[in-house]
Design goal:
105 residues, 2 strands, single chain, alpha+beta, Arc Repressor Mutant, subunit A
């Protein structure tokens, strides 16, 4: 199970995280995140945030949770078109990422 607040976070963060889970917001955000990755496969989290209009911080938190649940998969890194930095790409689990010839194990 994913920790929704760090041990070092103040009690208010733990209470807010618990409310997010109990209210169903967390599950709803995970669902939106997984659907965004399905609709826009292979984007970085920042690109995905811009396309889907999901808050980038919410999206980043839910991507790791969705990965733990098997709803999305991490893909290869590449340069993000928004930040111009190297970043992970995110894919639906149904996508088969193929390595270029010569790189397959």
């Amino acid at each position: 199970m994913h920790a929704h607040a760090r041990n070092s976070d103040p009690i208010t963060s733990h209470l807010a995280a618990e409310e997010n889970v109990v209210s169903g917001r967390n599950a709803a955000q995970q669902d939106l995140t997984a659907k965004a990755v399905e609709r826009y496969p292979g984007l970085t989290s920042l690109e995905l945030s811009k396309r889907s209009r999901i808050d980038r911080y919410t999206l980043a938190r839910r991507l790791s949770e969705c990965e733990e649940s098997g709803l999305v998969k991490r893909g290869p890194t590449r340069r993000c078109s928004v930040s111009n930095r190297t970043a992970l790409t995110w894919w639906p689990p149904s996508y088969c990422l193929q390595l270029p010839l010569g790189l397959a194990a």
